[in-house]
Amino acid sequence: MEINLNAIVIICGNYGSGKTEVAINLAISQKKKGLDVAIADLDLVNPYFRTREARNLLRESGINLILPPEKYMHADLPILAPEVSGAIKNPAELTILDVGGDNAGAMVLAALADSFSIGNVKTLQVVNPNRPNTQTIDGCFKMKAQIEAASNMSVTGIIGNANLMEETTTEHIIEGHAFVKEFSEKSGMALEFITVPSFLSEEIDSSDFSCPVLEISRQLVPPWKTAADLKV
Amino acid sequence: MGKILMKGNEAIGEAAIRAGCLNYFAYPITPQSEVAEYLSKRLPEVDGVFLQAESEVAVAYMIFGASGAGERVFTTSSSPGISLMCEGLSYVACAECPAVYVNIIRGGPGLGGILPSQADYFQATKGGGHGDYRLIVMAPDTVQEAVEMVMRAFPLAEKYRNPVMILGDGLIGQMMEPVEFPDHLKTEPSNKNDWATTGMDTRKSKTKNIVKSLFLDPAELYKKNIILKEKYDIIKEEEVMYDTYNMDVDYKMLIVSYGTMSRVCSTAIDLMKADGFEVGMLRPQTLFPFPEKEIFAAAQKESVKMLASIEMSMGQMVEDVERSVKGTRPVEWYGKAGGEVPTPEEVIEAVTSMYNKECA
């Protein structure tokens, strides 16, 4: 099964659900497939480990990257680049909006509401069942409701991102898939894809799952680790 | 409960609850505001109190009040916020009240920036506030160790009736790692009725407990200082914690590094080992008390030619390393500050060049 996303994809979810890693890896994978890809860093709430940390990789891969001005890159201020609304009105074949965590992070979407016309917009909730607050289906519903209230938009789909970083095992992936599948059935939202860390990709048979699989190669690493080179 | 993935700041908040601390006073500041955010949701679930104060100065005295009344209490902040608390911290230390402070350090001096730093080493270990007082200072290198240290900090603070500080650089607060929580601490502060203002009725006592830091009689204040010094001397003997890396070989050089900086160093040590250059590392887990004797002993090994203090600051811990080796080996410093974190490659370059200069 192939990931089939186009026009505007909004990536939201609770803090630390892995939105940014998903957004970066999705952008690269779709660029590799030949799509024209843009990505905007709308994370106004997180001070570290944001899309902007992978800016060289994304730019060198030919992805249109929309960031706050360079001189405000490390400002502790909620800066929304004016180019964002333009990118929404005239989207690339795939335009990914990487939104900050929880309802606080999703609030930025309400400010952009005017830019979203009736076009093709998917709002996807990233779920990692190994994070506090989304360890139960109820917790995922609660997070969905909070994001919807803050953003004034409906969450339309799910991305399963079950992981414990380097300590992720195949059991986490299998149980995580069952968990988001149940969330999808109970909510009526589509399960767009699940993720598998690249170090487990050989142990996982993607045909076992009810949805496409995105391989994740961690990009936002601490200074003592080196990120795998994903350049397109 | 198995492992879950948590941001350091969230894990610190959860660890305090599991240590039986249900009083949290704080004021938000990047990069540690997630502690307050997490506890604003979590504390009401366990009948705890989170009060967002009007400033860090107010926080410092809310802590004094709660601690003086015998309650487990803690706060979290980042560098400029801790500076504002230092007056109250000195009062708390003088009045011998137990309390826990977490400093998730950002780049300084001044208002500085929001990226990680270790530049509050002096502030934490040498004072910050006024007068002859000391904090017990612990520095975790992983989110898991941050959890363990927070849970250890409360009983330690109560054992010595002394403030304890957890010193984490911004990365400790912001990074996510898998963590496992130990069981809740069951114990109550055991001796609080002997000194805290817990109420005459509760204590069924005729004598009043008075918590204060004002001593107008110099003889009385001198006596207080002697009591404090004797306490700090015991802490120096009893509470040193440290970890080692690659010290079971004949290392030529000894790195002293703490917190997440030590994780950059261990990557560098692995790479240098592959190149045939053996470097050991001693990682202080307590910065006060400082592992002086252990560093001295590690430096006396015949193969050791020199030591390097590697810090995210412009040469602070190096003074304690120099003091520890008592002139028996050369000691050099390498570091960066202001939010820049040295890479393993930069550490290798610095270490190799200081070794070649000093020992070739």
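Chain B has two domains: 4-199+218-238, 242-359.
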